[in-house]
């Protein structure tokens, strides 16, 4: 036995410690497929997905969200963050978000204006709801601050069908957007086909004859698209 081999009998334990120390601070080395390693589990907890049952509710590749854990831990949600997450987790090339979408909001019956009525608080009669300055006609009011539109364009026909309400990606997408939003705003989903992806409509074909979604007559000059109301 050589002297080096003999000394290795005593240094083997120390070498093991050095290896674990080196590996601990290199996430790309300790990462395990699916994010099952200990550090990834801590990262999941940082974004609110520490429990396995919570992750199972989101039908996406959860390990892709680890790259955005620092962003998701912050309270803000900019359009760029939402588009980046949707694009990355669903492997999409063109995702944009248009905010300030106009909508009509229903007024609760007890909050609607009524001539001669007053509001009561602690038994005291307050100013009426029909005075100049707070009078609203009708049962709805216009609003521009509570709705946005998520646009996914340049889709193949297969991708387009998968994001329709009858497709396999619609529910995962809507649940994912609900998860990353801090405030549950109203939103529409705008889907656009890539050029030359419009197929001919054939009667009896459930995928090509969906009225309002895939039933295009002839060959549209512009890129065909549909808008789906997800949350009103």
Automatic annotation (TrEMBL):
UniProt superkingdom: Bacteria
Stated name of the protein: Type VI secretion protein
Q: What is the lineage of its organism?
A: Bacteria, Pseudomonadati, Pseudomonadota, Gammaproteobacteria, Enterobacterales
